[in-house]
Design brief:
About 60% of the residues lie in helices and about 0% in strands. By secondary structure, the protein is mainly α. It starts with 16 loop residues before the first helix and ends with a helix. The relative contact order is 0.15.
């Protein structure tokens, strides 16, 4: 799947509408193979992003867990460590 789509479930504070919208946009881009739609496809593209956003929000609202909420800063640091290990970069 697309590496740009981040996990949005079980964070404190919960995922924002903007985060859900960004994930939906990445998902539709990946499925369609289109980064920026042509004028002919613009309406269908944007409608798909909106529909995926609604479904994603419904999913996130319906999921339950007993696990402690994840901390965004901790997850960012973990991602940076994985990236440094994978690509051999240091800051």
């Amino acid at each position: 799947m697309c590496r740009n789509i981040k996990t949005l479930f079980n964070f404190d504070p919960p995922a924002t509408e903007d985060e859900i919208q960004a994930a939906a946009l990445q998902f539709v881009r990946k499925l369609s193979g289109i980064n920026t739609p042509s004028k002919a496809n613009e309406e269908a593209f944007h409608r798909a992003v909106q529909e995926v956003s609604v479904v994603a929000k419904n999913l996130l609202d319906a999921l339950v867990t007993n696990a402690e909420p994840r901390n965004r800063e901790v997850e960012i640091e973990r991602a940076r460590a994985r990236s440094a290990k994978r690509f051999g970069t240091t800051e």
